[in-house]
């Protein structure tokens, strides 16, 4: 097997496989204005609208993305107060089947609300619910390719940027990065190490500094904050022995970090909305991680954990040690968990089952009256996975049409229209999900292998035109422009009011 620098890919003569992976400054608000689904005031005129080196670990790609994102620049931040869109039927038919759970939760048929009598959204107006992850280029780099007509309502860039750009009426949602400190072999502290133990007593780092977080919160009141990014995700090593990371923390320490940062943000801006960080997915092991966070917060502070907005990432990935997928969450000794196949990655019925399970967990903990967002989701696998005929993608299981029909459109239909009076959010017509954020705008980095360009991730709505970020670069790659999947996104949102 040929090694590919800084990526964990595996390819035989019959198949290819990659494991990789892989927001808002409101105007001043006056108390007499109407409120959105989160109880925040909104403008009068806005109606609610709706590896080689073996297939080792999906977390490798997670951390690589964060290394890339750390170099992103931003510009001036301005914005508008977000407004939730009304769910409407669309001309694209791809109904999601309800997934029964062990509790046999009754699900009510979709409840479609009438369009508001206020000024309607034009086809180019932003949609409050629909979000996207910014990666390789700025949003405005795609102006000439019709990015405004994608109608993105919000975005994340996996950091805190006090001067983030907010074009097209979009909202910027910052992510505070946290990380448990580890003890390197030479006795020094490190934030990334696969085999190192944690520093004792346990401690964590935060980025940016708490003082910077407070300043940003005070300067931009009413912002939504995400505390951490995949805290359940363990550090992993690349084929070149580089350490790639997300925000690995034991659940008990994350409870402390959340408490500290929640208090810091609320102290600087009492109107801020604070969301828990998104885990990779919501499986039984990840539920146990969340249980431990919840219990530790109560034990330490004598009260329930104050979360304004609940949040998760939504991927369909197996949990196993030494194989592809999401890995085993930090603080757990199991070697396997959820058993998903590669093709399950584009099966939205399995993703929807996770949402039902998370909403049931929220109901059991007295949290049904809280909104739920998905700050990152999509189909990770690039088009060439399990496709011997590549670059002919006609029959590829992860080609744009199959991702559209098996995951993207069913997710939009379910998020907009599926309701459940038993577990859904009452303030939003009992919908289970209030907002969602697609991975990604344009993470189309990849590798030249034998003169053929292989992307590391699937799901890009635009091609950046940048090609491979690292050598070799001796292959052709797509020019900058909208992808076929991006075109399908545009077609869907153009049918919404």
Number of strands: 21
Q: Order of strands in the sheet with the most strands?
A: 5-4-3-17-16-15
Strand content: 5-15%
The helix/strand order is EEHEEEEEEEEHEEEHEHEHEHEEEEEH
Integer average pLDDT = 81
The biggest sheet, with number of strands, parallel, antiparallel or mixed sense and barrel status, is: 6 strands, parallel
Helix content: 10-25%
Question: Could you tell me how far the N terminus lies from the C terminus, measured between alpha carbons in angstroms?
Answer: 51 Å
Structural class: alpha/beta
Please give the count of helices. 7
Written overview of the protein:
This protein has 497 residues and is of the alpha/beta class. The protein has one domain (9-493). Helices cover 21% and strands 15% of the residues. It has 7 helices and 21 strands. The strands form 7 sheets. It has a 6-stranded parallel sheet, with helices on one face. A hairpin with a 5-residue loop joins β7 (182-183) and β8 (189-190). α2 (210-219) crosses α3 (251-268), α3 packs across α4 and α6 (400-417) packs parallel to α7 (484-493). It is globular, with a radius of gyration of 21 Å. The model is unreliable at 1-36 and 39-123 (pLDDT under 50).
Topology of helices and strands:
Layout: E1 9-11, E2 16-18, H1 59-69, E3 130-133, E4 154-156, E5 171-172, E6 175-180, E7 182-183, E8 189-190, E9 197-198, E10 204-207, H2 210-219, E11 224-229, E12 236-237, E13 243-244, H3 251-268, E14 273-278, H4 284-301, E15 310-314, H5 348-364, E16 372-377, H6 400-417, E17 435-438, E18 446-449, E19 452-455, E20 462-463, E21 481-482, H7 484-493
Parallel strand pairs: 3-4, 3-17, 4-5, 6-11, 11-14, 15-16, 16-17
Antiparallel strand pairs: 1-2, 6-10, 7-8, 7-9, 12-13, 18-19, 20-21
């Amino acid at each position: 097997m040929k090694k590919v620098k800084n990526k964990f890919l595996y390819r035989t003569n019959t198949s290819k496989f990659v494991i990789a992976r892989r927001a808002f400054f409101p105007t001043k608000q006056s108390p007499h204005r109407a409120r959105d689904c989160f109880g925040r005031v909104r403008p009068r005129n806005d109606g609610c609208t709706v590896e080689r080196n073996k297939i080792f670990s999906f977390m490798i790609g997670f951390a690589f993305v964060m290394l890339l994102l750390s170099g992103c620049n931003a510009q001036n931040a301005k914005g508008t107060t977000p407004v939730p869109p009304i769910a409407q039927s669309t001309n694209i038919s791809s109904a999601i089947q309800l997934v029964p759970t062990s509790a046999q939760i009754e699900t009510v048929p979709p409840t479609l609300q009438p369009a508001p009598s206020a000024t309607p959204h034009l086809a180019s107006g932003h949609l409050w619910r629909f979000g996207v992850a910014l990666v390789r280029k700025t949003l405005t780099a795609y102006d000439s390719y019709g990015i405004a007509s994608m109608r993105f309502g919000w975005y994340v860039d996996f950091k805190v940027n006090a001067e983030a750009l907010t074009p097209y009426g979009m909202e910027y949602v910052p992510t505070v990065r946290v990380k448990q400190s580890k003890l390197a072999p030479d006795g020094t502290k490190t934030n990334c190490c696969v085999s190192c133990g944690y520093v004792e007593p346990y401690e964590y780092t935060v980025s940016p500094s708490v003082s910077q977080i407070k300043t940003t919160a005070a300067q931009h009141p009413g912002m939504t904050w995400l505390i951490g990014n995949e805290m359940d995700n363990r550090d992993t090593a690349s084929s070149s022995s580089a350490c790639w990371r997300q925000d690995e923390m034991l659940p008990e320490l994350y409870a402390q970090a959340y408490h500290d940062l929640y208090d810091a943000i609320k102290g600087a801006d009492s109107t801020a909305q604070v969301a828990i960080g998104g885990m990779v997915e919501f499986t039984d092991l990840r539920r146990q991680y969340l249980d431990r966070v919840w219990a530790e917060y109560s034990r330490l502070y004598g009260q329930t954990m104050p979360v304004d907005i609940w949040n998760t990432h939504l991927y369909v990935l197996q949990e196993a040690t030494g194989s592809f997928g999401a890995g085993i969450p930090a603080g757990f000794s199991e070697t396997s968990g959820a058993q998903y196949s590669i093709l399950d990655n584009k099966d939205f019925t399995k993703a929807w089952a996770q949402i039902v399970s998370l909403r049931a967990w929220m109901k059991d903990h007295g949290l049904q009256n809280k909104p739920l967002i998905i700050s990152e989701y999509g189909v990770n696998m690039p088009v060439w996975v399990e496709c011997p005929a590549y670059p002919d993608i006609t029959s590829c299981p992860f080609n744009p049409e199959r991702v559209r029909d098996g995951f993207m459109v069913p997710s939009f239909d379910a998020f907009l229209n599926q309701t459940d009076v038993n577990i859904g959010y009452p303030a939003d017509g009992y919908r289970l999900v209030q907002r969602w954020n697609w991975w990604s705008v344009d993470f189309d980095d990849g590798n030249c292998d034998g003169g053929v360009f292989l992307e590391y991730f699937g799901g890009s709505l635009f091609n950046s035109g940048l090609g491979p970020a690292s050598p070799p670069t001796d292959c052709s790659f797509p020019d900058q422009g909208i992808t076929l999947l991006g075109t399908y996104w545009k077609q869907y949102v153009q049918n919404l009011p």
